[in-house]
């Protein structure tokens, strides 16, 4: 249910469960995590693009698995988003449609987000009675600000692609976000991978000196 295409120093990773709105099972999450880890260590790859088949990027967690197990609280969600956040290369989410629930974690962990104009964004943890992934509130607030992050997480607000751009959740809107993501990744894919990694590391900020401890 996960497709990978490598071309011109980029890897395109595609969710392939369009008949279920690309809802994520635990097996899919594990496969995504393992695929990201494998691809990011490939010295021939300088950019990763995440996208989906069909008209929805992802509806979030597979509801059948949520009802029948512990998918909603599985650590694999955080493992997936961490694998993307820790990538030393450019990562782009090409959002072919709406994005909901836990699927937002992997998208927030990307460097850039490009969406179709018709997409909607929704993270209904308040309505379903679960906590968001641990890293999501901080990453969301870093993009849209604390108040708007609370509007999405605590107000369960559904926002349009236009509003998502205004908020800073999405960087740009295109009719063909995959083509746009490929175009944006061209510079990174034309450069030396070490340069891509070096420039990306500059955005992580200076490391803090270790604090001295007394006795």
Could you describe the 3D structure shown?
The chain has 215 residues and is of the alpha/beta class. Helices cover 40% and strands 19% of the residues. It has a single domain, classed as 2-enoyl-CoA Hydratase, Chain A, domain 1 (Alpha-Beta Complex), CATH 3.90.226.10. It has 11 helices and 10 strands. The strands form 2 sheets. A 6-stranded mixed β-sheet has the order 1-2-3-5-7-10, sandwiched between helices. A hairpin with a 2-residue loop joins β1 (2-7) and β2 (10-15).
Could you name the key traits of this structure?
215 residues; alpha/beta; 2-enoyl-CoA Hydratase, Chain A, domain 1; 6-stranded mixed sheet; 4-stranded mixed sheet; 11 helices; 10 strands
Number of strands: 10
Q: How much is the radius of gyration in Å?
A: 17 Å
Overall pLDDT metric: 93
How far apart are the first and last residues' alpha carbons, in Å? 55 Å
Query: What is the strand arrangement across the widest sheet?
Result: 1-2-3-5-7-10
What portion of residues is helical? Answer: 40-55%
- Broad structural category: alpha/beta
Major sheet description: 6 strands, mixed
CATH topology: 2-enoyl-CoA Hydratase, Chain A, domain 1
Q: What is the element string, with H for helices and E for strands? A: EEHEEHHEEHEEHHHEHEHHH
CATH class: Alpha Beta
CATH H level, superfamily name? 2-enoyl-CoA Hydratase, Chain A, domain 1
The overall number of domains is: 1
CATH architecture: Alpha-Beta Complex
Number of helices: 11
Shape: globular
Low-confidence stretches: 206-215
Q: DSSP strand (E) fraction?
A: 15-25%
């Amino acid at each position: 249910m996960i497709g990978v295409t490598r071309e011109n120093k980029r890897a395109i990773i595609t969710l392939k469960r369009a008949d279920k709105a690309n809802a994520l099972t635990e097996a899919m999450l594990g496969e995504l995590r393992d695929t990201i880890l494998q691809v990011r260590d490939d010295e021939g790859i300088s950019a990763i693009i995440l996208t989906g088949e069909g008209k929805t990027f992802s509806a979030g967690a597979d509801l059948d698995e949520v009802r029948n197990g512990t998918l909603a609280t599985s650590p694999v969600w955080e493992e997936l988003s961490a694998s993307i956040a820790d990538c030393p290369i450019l990562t782009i989410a090409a959002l072919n449609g709406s994005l909901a629930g836990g699927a937002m974690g992997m998208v927030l962990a990307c460097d850039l987000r490009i969406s179709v104009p018709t997409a909607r964004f929704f993270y209904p943890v308040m309505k379903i009675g679960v906590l968001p992934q641990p890293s999501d509130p901080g990453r969301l607030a870093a993009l849209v600000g604390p108040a708007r992050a609370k509007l999405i997480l605590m107000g369960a607000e559904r926002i349009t692609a236009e509003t998502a751009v205004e908020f800073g959740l999405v960087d740009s809107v295109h009719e063909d976000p995959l083509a746009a993501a490929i175009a944006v990744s061209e510079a990174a894919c034309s450069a030396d991978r070490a340069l891509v990694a070096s420039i990306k590391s500059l955005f992580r900020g200076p490391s803090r000196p270790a604090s001295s401890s007394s006795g």
